[in-house]
Specification:
By secondary structure, the protein is an alpha+beta fold. Helices cover about 35% and strands about 25% of the residues. It is built from 15 helices and 22 strands. The strands form six sheets. An eight-stranded antiparallel beta sheet has the order 13-12-9-10-11-14-21-19. The chain has a five-stranded parallel beta sheet with strand order 3-2-1-4-5, sandwiched between helices. The longest helix has 17 residues. It is globular and about 60 Å long. The structure holds adenosine-5'-diphosphate (2 copies) and magnesium ion.
C-alpha cells in the first residue's frame, strides 16, 4: 500500500481523507494556505506544509507548490479531494512526471468527462440516453441560435467546462437567446477560462439522480446505487438522500446498468459519479460524469457500509475490487444536510467569521464531517460549506426524524448558517411526502416570500 498520501485540499474533505488514511495505516501530509494555519486538517495530519498565501490561485491551485510539498515530504500518492484541482489534468501530468500516484481518474478519462460537451458526444456514440440537445459545442451565438431552433424552447445553455452550477442559463424564447448566450459565455470565460457552450432541452421539474461507480484497472465496474440530489439552489446541491424512494428495483437496475455502460464506454478507472435527470414519466437522461469523490458521497457509505475513499485509494494503488455487484446491499435510508456559513435571509450571502460556540450532535445513526471547532475562524477566501450533517435511518421517515433531532442539537454561534433553512425543508409537507424536483427550493422560498 501507499506509504504517505498528500492531501491537496482543505476543510472537511481533507479531514475525511486523513481519517481513512489513518485507518489504513497510511501516513498523511496536509497542505495549507496562510489563512488556514489553524485549520483542523493541519493538526490531524502527520505532517503539514504551508504552500502559500490565502488566495486559492497562490495556494490550493498552485500546482508547483503542491508538487514541491509532495516531493519534500516524500509522499508517494496525492489525493485531490473535490473542487480545487480535483479535475485538473495539469496536476495529473505533474504527478506522472514526478512519480506520484494521483488518486483519481486517468488523464484520458478526465479529458473526455471534464469537457461536458465532449462527454455528451461520447455518451451519444455509446448509445447512452442524453438530454435532447446540440451535438457540438460552439462559441458562436448565431450558430447556437440555429441549434436552438431545431431543439425547441425552453433551452438550457451550458458551459462545456462548467461545474458547481455555474455557466448555466435557461432561455425561454428566441428573443432573449443571444443576450443570454453572451451572458453565459462571459460567465464561463471568467469562471472556467473557456468560451465553448452547448445546448440542452430544459427538462421541467426533473429529479437529479446520480449513481456512484467504482471501477478498478482490471475492467471490474460496479455501482453502489443512487443518490437523489434534487434539492438545489441555483443548480447547487444543498440536501441529498439515498436511496431515492420513488425508484423501484427495476428502475434502479436499469439506470444502474446505463451508468455502468457510461463508465465502461471510456474504460473508466477510480470512483466516479454518473449524473442523470429523471423526468416525471421516469425517462432518464445522462447530464455529466464527475470523475472525483463528491461532496455527498457519505450517504452512499451509510446505506452500503462501504468506505468509498478507501476503495478509491486501493484502486489507485492497483488493487482489484474485492466487492462484486451482487455484494452491494442497500440498507435503510440516509440524508445529508450541507451546513453552510451563509445568510438565508440575505440571499444566502457567505458569512465568514469566528465561531463563538460549537456543539455537534451525536447518538445513533449520526455522522458529522466537519473541520470546525470552538473559536475557529472561517476564512473568507473559500467555499462557505463548513460541514456536513449525515444521518442513517431504517427508512426515509426515520431518517427525516433523526435529521430533525440532529439539527436541533447542532449549535453553531457567531456566524449565520443555513441550519434553520434545513429545518424548514424537513418540515415541509411536500418534502415529507417525497414530492421532489430540482425546482423545489425555489418554490419553498417563493411561497415564503409571498
Ligand atoms: P456538483 O459539482 O455536481 O454539484 P458536488 O456538489 O459534489 O458536485 O461538488 C462540487 C461543489 O463543491 C462545488 O459546486 C463547490 O461549490 C463545492 N466545493 C468545491 N471545492 C470545495 C472545497 N474545497 N470545500 C468545500 N466545498 C467545495
Ligand atoms: P454542474 O457541472 O454544474 O454540476 P450539471 O450539468 O450537473 O452541472 O447540472 C447541474 C444541475 O442543473 C442539475 O442537477 C439540474 O438541476 C440542472 N440542470 C442541468 N441540465 C438541465 C436541463 N437540461 N434541464 C433542466 N435542468 C437542468
Ligand atoms: Mg453536476
Amino acid at each position: 500500500m501507499f506509504k504517505k498520501v498528500l492531501i491537496a485540499n482543505r476543510g472537511e474533505i481533507a479531514v475525511r481523507i486523513i481519517r481513512t488514511c489513518k485507518e489504513m495505516g497510511i501516513k498523511t501530509v496536509a497542505i495549507y494556505s496562510e489563512a488556514d494555519q489553524d485549520s483542523i486538517h493541519v493538526h490531524m495530519a502527520d505532517e503539514a506544509i504551508c504552500i502559500g498565501p490565502a488566495h486559492p490561485k497562490k495556494s490550493y491551485l498552485n500546482i508547483d507548490n503542491i508538487i514541491s510539498a509532495a516531493l519534500v515530504s516524500g509522499a508517494d500518492a496525492l489525493h485531490p479531494g473535490y473542487g480545487f484541482l480535483s479535475e485538473n489534468k495539469d496536476l495529473i501530468n505533474a504527478c506522472i512526471k514526478n512519480n506520484i500516484t494521483f488518486i483519481g481518474p486517468n488523464k484520458e478519462h478526465l479529458e473526455i468527462m471534464g469537457d461536458k460537451a465532449q462527454a455528451r458526444k461520447t455518451m451519444i456514440e455509446a448509445g447512452i440516453p442524453v438530454v435532447p440537445g446540440s451535438k457540438e459545442a460552439t462559441n458562436d451565438a448565431d450558430k447556437a441560435l440555429q441549434m436552438a431552433k431545431e431543439i425547441g424552447y425552453p433551452i438550457m445553455l451550458k458551459a462545456s467546462n462548467g461545474g458547481g452550477g455555474r455557466g448555466m442559463r435557461i432561455v425561454h424564447n428566441e428573443e432573449e437567446f443571444v443576450a443570454k448566450f453572451n451572458m453565459a459565455k462571459a460567465e464561463s470565460i471568467v469562471a472556467f477560462n473557456d468560451d465553448m457552450m452547448y445546448l440542452e432541452k430544459f427538462i421541467e421539474n426533473p429529479r437529479h439522480i446520480e449513481f456512484q461507480i467504482l471501477a478498478d484497472s482490471y475492467g471490474n465496474v460496479i455501482h453502489l446505487g443512487e443518490r437523489d440530489c434534487s434539492l438545489q439552489r441555483r443548480n447547487q446541491k444543498i440536501l441529498e438522500e439515498a436511496p431515492c424512494s420513488i425508484i423501484d428495483k427495476e428502475l434502479r437496475r436499469e439506470m444502474g446498468e446505463v451508468a455502468l455502460r457510461a463508465a465502461k464506454a471510456v474504460n473508466y478507472v477510480s470512483a466516479g459519479t454518473v449524473e442523470f435527470l429523471l423526468d416525471k414519466d421516469n425517462n432518464f437522461y445522462f447530464i455529466e460524469m464527475n470523475t472525483r469523490m463528491q461532496v455527498e458521497h457519505p450517504i452512499t457509505e451509510l446505506i452500503t457500509g462501504i468506505d468509498l475513499i478507501k476503495e478509491q485509494i486501493k484502486i489507485a494503488y492497483g488493487k482489484r475490487l474485492n466487492i462484486t455487484q451482487d455484494d452491494i446491499r442497500i440498507n435503510g435510508h440516509s440524508i445529508e444536510c450541507r451546513i453552510n456559513a451563509e445568510d438565508p435571509e440575505n440571499n444566502f450571502m457567505p458569512c465568514p467569521g469566528k465561531i463563538e460556540r460549537y456543539f455537534a450532535p451525536g447518538g445513533f445513526g449520526i455522522r458529522v464531517d466537519s473541520h470546525i471547532y470552538d473559536d475557529y475562524i472561517i476564512p473568507p477566501n473559500y467555499d462557505s460549506m463548513i460541514g456536513k450533517l449525515i444521518v442513517w435511518g431504517a427508512n426515509r421517515n426515520e431518517a427525516i426524524n433523526r435529521m430533525k433531532r440532529a439539527l436541533d442539537e447542532l449549535v453553531i454561534l457567531g456566524v449565520k448558517t443555513n441550519i434553520e433553512f434545513h429545518k424548514e425543508i424537513l418540515n415541509n409537507k411536500e418534502f415529507i411526502e417525497n414530492r421532489l424536483a430540482t425546482s423545489f427550493i425555489e418554490k419553498v422560498l417563493f411561497r415564503k416570500n409571498k
